[in-house]
Design a protein that fits this description.
The chain is an alpha+beta fold. It has one helix and seven strands, in the order αβββββββ.
C-alpha cells in the first residue's frame, strides 16, 4: 500500500524554490566580489601594422619570409601602463602563415600617451597569390600589460597589409 503521495508535489516545489534561492544568492555574491574599478572599463587602444614589403620580383615565391611589424599602443587612462610582451599569430587564410611568435618588451606608456614598438617575426608563404606576401593577413595580437601592479591582457584582431598597400 502506498502512502504519502499527497505531499510529493509540495516537496518537489519546495526543493526547486530552495535551489533557486541558493543559486540567486550565489550569483549576487559573485557579482559583489567582482572588481568595480572605474579604470578597468578603459582599455588601451592597439594598432598593428606591417612595416615590411616583399620585393616585386618575389611576389609569386613561396617559402620563408621575415615580416617587420609595428604595434602602437595608446593609453587613455590616468595611470601609466607597462607593455611586457606582444604575441602575434595569423588567423585563417591570408598572404602568409604566421606561426605563434612572442616578443618581450619593457616599455612604459604614460597617461594619455601613445608609444610604438617594432619587431620581426618569421612567416611562411604557402600559396602564391596575386599580391604575394604583400597581401592582407588577419593577425591576432595579444598584449601583456601591467598597470599599478595589476597584470592584464589586451587582445586585438586586425586585418593588415604592408605599409603602402598592395
Amino acid at each position: 500500500m502506498m502512502t504519502g503521495g499527497g505531499n510529493a508535489p509540495r516537496t518537489f516545489l519546495e526543493t526547486i524554490m530552495r535551489n533557486l534561492l541558493m543559486m540567486t544568492t550565489l550569483l549576487l555574491f559573485a557579482a559583489g566580489c567582482a572588481t568595480n574599478d572605474a579604470t578597468s572599463s578603459i582599455e588601451p587602444e592597439v594598432t598593428l601594422v606591417q612595416l615590411s614589403r616583399v620585393a616585386e620580383g618575389m611576389r609569386s615565391d613561396t617559402g620563408p619570409v621575415s615580416v617587420h611589424y609595428g604595434v602602437e599602443v595608446r593609453n587613455p587612462t590616468d595611470t601609466p601602463i607597462r607593455l611586457d610582451r606582444v604575441s602575434v599569430q595569423s588567423i585563417g587564410g591570408g598572404a602568409y602563415d604566421l606561426p605563434a611568435h612572442s616578443q618581450a618588451f619593457d616599455v612604459t606608456i604614460a597617461s594619455k600617451e601613445t608609444k610604438s614598438v617594432e619587431f620581426w617575426a618569421p612567416a611562411y608563404v604557402v600559396n602564391p597569390a596575386a599580391s604575394g606576401a604583400n597581401g592582407p593577413v588577419t593577425i591576432r595580437a595579444t598584449l601583456e600589460l601591467d598597470s599599478a601592479g595589476k597584470k592584464f591582457q589586451k587582445i586585438s584582431m586586425q586585418n593588415i597589409s604592408p605599409a603602402g598597400g598592395n
